[in-house]
Amino acid sequence: MADILSGKEVAQALGEKLKGEVDQLKSRGIVPGLAIVIVGDRPDSMSYIKGAQKKCSEIGIDCRLVQLPEDLSEKEFVSKIHQLNEDRNVHGILVMRPLPAHISEDRVKYEISPLKDVDCFNPANIAKVMSGEEGGFAPCTPSAVMEILDHYGIELGGKRAVIVGRSMVVGRPLAMMMLRRNATLTICHTKTVDLAKETSRAEILVAAAGKARMIKKDMVGSGAVVIDVGINFDENGKMCGDVDFEAVKDVAGKITPVPGGVGSVTSTVLAKHVIRACRMLIDSEA
Ligand code: NDP
């Protein structure tokens, strides 16, 4: 039976540390601020926002919701982003995606200040993740995976890591972050010829494909560390990951559950990024 890597435990430990940092900032009269921008009211985005607001409030971050009408023009959207870029009480800006089709993500992503871009929307931050340069913001979900590995002292150096999924929000940036820690990476996707062969070689296996319970027991090597990023709902409407948890836990060495795994850490990482953005602003003005 695998050890459970509890995202809740990681989020609690990190949250307490961050709360201490915010208390220190507040004693100097500084309150870290996050603006969450949503166009419309997609239920999945609204549910994420609720979680992020709760986490920010626990940690002491001032979290402002900027909810914009669905029919807002691209020009008006960009103008709102510019306004938040200039707002001294806003240190981090999170734009909920997807945006409505008439607002081009490819155009507007350049408008958010890279210094406030706490979930890596602007290509300037993506470039830093790809090149391994310090000082930018990586996307929150792959950062949450790294937090879990670090919390449990799981070394990456020299390890065979396999990631299933190559999206720009999870698989690709995570691969670069693991590569920077000297793991030997394989990235799998829908055109991978023998997925089971690749995944069963992994010492660290990350599932980020968005397919309910697709990683079966016979696809996982004995003793592997299995990180499940997937958030899916099965035919009974029950939340589940990309990993067949009940079966895989008998072969894996360590495993994250869903719920209670990676998803539990993401909003705490967002808070961490807001505090860092706040410190960066203070340092730049010192
Ligand atoms: P995308 O749909 O953007 O990407 C999925 C990736 O998985 C693609 O690269 C795709 O390959 C690959 N893939 C899909 N099916 C298979 C398959 N059968 N075999 C091999 N590869 C496959 O998803 P995201 O990256 O946005 O999200 C992935 C999962 O993570 C989702 O369940 C999502 O809900 C969850 N998620 C969780 C978060 C959290 O906080 N825990 C945050 C963000 C996402 P190809 O490129 O060839 O199409």
UniProtKB/TrEMBL annotation:
Pathway noted in the entry: One-carbon metabolism; tetrahydrofolate interconversion
Q: Family, per the entry?
A: Belongs to the tetrahydrofolate dehydrogenase/cyclohydrolase family.
What this protein is called in its record is Bifunctional protein FolD
Give the catalysed reaction(s), semicolon-separated.
(6R)-5,10-methylene-5,6,7,8-tetrahydrofolate + NADP(+) = (6R)-5,10-methenyltetrahydrofolate + NADPH; (6R)-5,10-methenyltetrahydrofolate + H2O = (6R)-10-formyltetrahydrofolate + H(+)
Q: Which domain of life is it from?
A: Bacteria
What is the recorded function of this protein according to its Swiss-Prot or TrEMBL entry?
Answer: Catalyzes the oxidation of 5,10-methylenetetrahydrofolate to 5,10-methenyltetrahydrofolate and then the hydrolysis of 5,10-methenyltetrahydrofolate to 10-formyltetrahydrofolate.
Q: Which GO terms describe its molecular function?
A: methenyltetrahydrofolate cyclohydrolase activity; methylenetetrahydrofolate dehydrogenase (NADP+) activity
Q: How does it assemble?
A: Homodimer.
Record: residues binding NADP(+): G165, R166, S167, I231
Keywords, A to Z? Amino-acid biosynthesis, Histidine biosynthesis, Hydrolase, Methionine biosynthesis, Multifunctional enzyme, NADP, One-carbon metabolism, Oxidoreductase, Purine biosynthesis
Q: According to the UniProt entry, what is the EC number of this protein?
A: 1.5.1.5, 3.5.4.9
Q: Which residues form the Tetrahydrofolate dehydrogenase/cyclohydrolase catalytic domain?
A: 5-119
Naturally occurring in which organism (per UniProt): Thermosediminibacter oceani (strain ATCC BAA-1034 / DSM 16646 / JW/IW-1228P)
List residues of the Tetrahydrofolate dehydrogenase/cyclohydrolase NAD(P)-binding domain: 139-279
Name the Gene Ontology biological process terms.
Answer: L-histidine biosynthetic process; methionine biosynthetic process; purine nucleotide biosynthetic process; tetrahydrofolate interconversion
- HAMAP family with a match to the protein in the record: THF_DHG_CYH
The record's annotation in CDD domains points to: NAD_bind_m-THF_DH_Cyclohyd
Where do transmembrane segments lie in this chain? Answer: none
